[in-house]
Specification:
The chain is mainly α and 288 residues long. It folds into three domains: 72 residues; 149 residues, Lysozyme (Orthogonal Bundle); 46 residues, Membrane-bound Lytic Murein Transglycosylase D, Chain A. The strands form two sheets. Strands 1-2 form a two-stranded antiparallel ribbon. Helix 6 packs across helix 9.
Length: 288
């Protein structure tokens, strides 16, 4: 694993910094990255890389620091094909999506896929300015804050640009919760509620009129299958934990099992060696 990660570092990070590094300094970067990427990938780790470079004699300017951060955040995670930023996005939403399954029976993979598609991985204007991950408009019953934003609809087979009035939330968690309430509160989405097949759920939400794009359900299914989002659909009552930046088997066992000394049990329960690499966005089954 370390060698594979070192190769990724060489491919993605070194080109960013080649003009600033000697060959020896480049090797130092790869060595440092091997140490830190073994446990997680994320923004904090770019700071560690920068610190290692500084120790080896590289002058870290603000521009160079930004380059390091961009390179690290865009490294594909070796197990999932996700970038670190995408893995972090999923890791933030998965627990809320799973909680909403327990509360309102909206399939987690559908929730996450819709959030990705509607918000562009949380980077859309609505997601950034209004914490609106699902493009939900105000409607006649909405009593909260609103925001006007550019949008588009498919009308008679043609795209029509327009301005829509959308809901504003205090947080992404509030957006996920309201997504459940929105679907569960309208009779036209009754086939979505409680559906355990992600393909059926995607088709049902499309047929009920959530979006006018003709390929909406296909796009959702593609996201779920490409990124394995159905792994979060532990609908049989099994506890599922989504790995976050900085996690280790010991830390997860401490939080979820009441004692870090159960880290080996946690790893074995998931068919893994206690020394295995775990990355943000990865899911683990939690034993009783």
């Amino acid at each position: 694993m370390a060698l594979a990660i070192a190769a990724l570092v060489s491919r993605y990070i070194i080109p960013w910094l080649k003009s600033n590094l000697t060959a020896q300094q480049a090797e130092t970067l790869v060595s440092a990255a091997e140490q830190i990427f073994g446990s997680s990938v994320g923004k904090a780790k770019s700071d560690y890389v920068a610190a290692q470079l500084a120790e080896s004699g590289v002058k870290i300017t603000p521009a160079l620091e930004s380059q390091i951060e961009a390179a690290v955040l865009n490294l594909p995670q070796p197990q999932s094909g996700l970038t670190a930023a995408q893995g972090e996005f999923i890791a933030k939403l998965a627990p809320a999506a799973q909680a909403e399954w327990r509360r309102g029976k909206i399939l987690p993979s559908l929730t996450i896929a819709q959030a990705i598609l509607e918000s562009g991985w949380g980077k859309s204007g609505l997601a950034q300015k209004a914490n609106n991950l699902f493009g939900i408009k105000t409607g006649s019953n909405w009593q909260g804050k609103t925001i006007n934003s550019k949008t588009w609809e498919i009308i008679d087979g043609r795209r029509v640009d327009c301005i829509g009035e959308f809901r504003v939330y205090e947080s992404w968690a509030d957006s996920v919760r309201d997504h459940t309430d929105f679907l569960a509160g309208l009779s036209r989405y009754k086939k979505v509620v409680g559906e355990t097949s992600y393909k059926n759920a995607c088709q049902a939400v499309h047929e009920a009129g959530y979006a006018t794009a003709t390929d909406y359900s296909a796009a959702l299914i593609k996201l779920i299958e490409r990124y394995g989002l159905n792994q979060y659909d532990g609908v049989g009552g099994e506890r599922i934990y989504t790995v976050r930046t900085g996690d280790s088997f010991w830390k997860i066992a401490q939080e979820q099992l009441g004692g870090g000394e159960r880290y080996a049990e946690l790893a074995a329960f998931n068919g893994l060696d206690p020394e295995s690499v775990i990355v943000p966005g990865q899911t683990l089954r939690i034993p009783e």
